[in-house]
Structures are given as C-alpha cells and as structure tokens.
Amino acid sequence: MNQLIRRLRMLKLIFFSVVLFSSNAMALDSIEVFVANELLSEKGKQFFDIDKLKNSTRAKVTVYNVQALSNAEDHLSEGLPSNENQALHIVRQRMASKKYRSTLMEIENAVPSIMKLATYQIEKIPAFVFDNEYVVYGVTPLQALSEYQSFIKKGTSNDK
C-alpha cells in the first residue's frame, strides 16, 4: 500500500512538472511592435489598437515608431534657409534652447528603435517581435498575437 501511495505521489509530481513546463513554454514575456506615424495617429489607432494587445496579454509590450528619428530631424530642420552656414547657425541656436531639448530627447529615444530594427532585420511594418525571436508582419496587433499563439501551439504539439 505504501508503495502504491509513493507511486501515485511520484506520478502526481511528474504530471505537475509537465504541466508547469508546458505552461512556461507557452508564456510570453515580451512583444515589440514596430510601426510608422500613420499607425500611431488618431485615425490609425482605430485600425491598429495597441491597447487591445496590451490588455490581451501579460507580456511587456514596447512600441517603436520607426519614423521617430526622421520626425525629430524634421522638427529640428523646419524652416531652415538653404544657405548652409545660416542653417548651421540656426540649428545651433535651436539646440541650445529649452524648446528644442524635447526634440533632442526624441532623437535620443529614437536610437533604440533604429538599433532594434537593424538587430531583428525588420523588412516591413507593422512588425511584431515576440520574445525576441518570432516575427509577424503586416497584420493588426490582435491578429499578430493570434498567429504567434497558433505557431507556438503547432510547435509544441509537434514536439510531443
């Protein structure tokens, strides 16, 4: 009888270990979203609701605007004369002013998105990178999550 109880306990332990392992394999830690200006605009948010994605998962969701650096550069160069020396003088004045410090912060904040874009070799946008490994292109946030989950389920069912 004691031997039977020990075996049952051992089977229980194995069962819970398998359940724990398989649920951890399905756990999603991070989602990185690469988008452009038009998808972050008010009109774009109607189609491309990132908040729905954030509410659908416990994963950390980070959004990168791949045009952020270009936006900041446009802001700095707005209204500059065509004369290079005059333009350089105005840019230096702008960069020293409090008004443009926020633009400099935009540039600083844009650098990680450019680095990530290159690291993942993102080919088109929108792009969703799940756990630094799986990329889904050209769909809405919830469609990307669904495609990722389907892919993972197929992969784990093939492993069994």
From TrEMBL:
<keyword id="KW-0732">Signal</keyword>
<dbReference type="InterPro" id="IPR011090">
    <property type="entry name" value="Integr_conj_element_PFL4709"/>
</dbReference>
<protein>
    <submittedName>
        <fullName>DUF1525 domain-containing protein</fullName>
    </submittedName>
</protein>
<dbReference type="Pfam" id="PF07511">
    <property type="entry name" value="DUF1525"/>
</dbReference>
<feature type="signal peptide">
    <location>
        <begin position="1"/>
        <end position="27"/>
    </location>
</feature>
